[in-house]
Design brief:
With 141 residues, this protein is an alpha+beta fold. The chain has one domain: S-adenosylmethionine decarboxylase (4-Layer Sandwich). Helix content is 26%, strand content 38%. It is built from four helices and six strands; from the N terminus they run βααββββαβα. A six-stranded antiparallel sheet has the order 2-3-4-5-1-6, with helices on one face.
Length: 141
């Protein structure tokens, strides 16, 4: 296995107005997405923001799928992170695109835990951001 997991970041625009602010509908979409890809659901949690917008997460034995909606823009952001190579994040993305009736989409996929190169894009340090974190972090008790 070249990587420990794959992380697909999905952007969906011009989504169904009836779906993007419906907390029960989003719970159902998360459950059906997991079923379509044969993932094992541990839990599904959603929160409806005021006045609108929903964040939902399906915690899977294989990792997670998260959805964040902005109904005022008919926009949905989704993260599909699946460990191993048994389940395709693209299949999950295809189902989400259909479920939200997105008219425009884009995505990026990343290898997580890339065991061969151990590089992420062009950035590689042995102790990332240590100096910045120490100088900007609030003091802890």
């Amino acid at each position: 296995m070249a990587a420990l997991g794959r992380h697909l970041i999905l952007e969906m625009w011009d989504c169904s107005s009836d779906t993007v602010n419906n907390i029960e509908g989003i719970k159902e979409i998360l459950a059906k997405t997991a079923k379509v890809i044969n993932a094992t659901v541990i839990d599904i949690m959603c929160h409806h923001f005021s006045p609108y917008g929903v964040t939902g997460v399906a915690i899977l034995a294989e990792s997670h799928i998260s959805i964040h909606t902005w109904p005022e823009y008919q926009y949905v952001a989704a993260d599909i992170f699946l460990c191993g190579n048994e389940i395709s994040p693209q299949v999950a993305a295809t189902y989400l695109i259909q479920a939200f009736q997105a008219k425009e989409t884009s995505f990026a996929e990343f290898k997580r835990g890339d065991l061969l190169s151990r590089q992420i894009l062009n950035y590689k340090t042995s102790a990332p951001f240590t100096k910045d974190v120490e100088s900007s972090a609030p003091a802890l008790l």
